[in-house]
Amino acid sequence: MSVTYKKLWKMLIDNNMKKKDLQQAANLTSYAMHKLSKDDTVTTEILEKICIALNCTVDDIMEFSSENKF
After folding, report:
1. How many CB atoms lie under 10 A from the CB of residue 54?
2. How many of the other CB atoms lie within 10 Å of CB of 67?
3. Hey, which residues does 44 pair with through a beta bridge?
4. How many CA atoms lie within 13 A of 44 on its CB side?
5. Which of 4, 30, 42, 43 is deepest in the core (most CB within 10 A)?
6. Beta-bridge partners for 3
7. How far is residue 29's CA from residue 10's CA, in Å, rounded to a whole number?
8. pLDDT tens, position by position, 15-66
9. What is the rounded distance in angstroms from the CA atom of residue 14 to the CA atom of residue 52?
10. Per-residue pLDDT for 4 more than 60?
11. Cα–Cα distance, 63 to 47 (Å, whole number)
12. Which among 59, 52, 55 is positioned nearest to 28, based on CA atoms?
């Protein structure tokens, strides 16, 4: 099982935001953005910052996928 942030990217498109806008709004590092872009796991602190910046819940920005990354 793996994590995917497709919902986050769709939300950014719907809100007419770019990844750079999210990075600034949530005060994220470029490393954190890179991990999100690669569907890597991130800390709950990063998820919390995103949710606060976008006024949403974790369910709105990520989901678990049954596809393996192997």
Report:
1. 18
2. 10
3. none
4. 0
5. 42
6. 64
7. 21
8. 999 999 999 999 999 999 999 999 999 999 999 999 999 999 999 999 998 8
9. 17
10. yes
11. 12
12. 52
Tokens found for residue 25: 């709004």
On the question of pLDDT at 3 being above 90, the answer is: yes
What does DSSP say about strands 63-65 and 2-4: parallel, antiparallel, or unpaired? antiparallel
Q: Tell whether the model's pLDDT for residue 69 goes beyond 60.
A: no
Reduced 3-state DSSP string for the chain: CEEECHHHHHHHHHCCCCHHHHHHHHCCCHHHHHHHHCCCCCCHHHHHHHHHHHCCCHHHHCEEECCCCC
How far is it, in rounded angstroms, from Cα 27 to Cα 47?
11
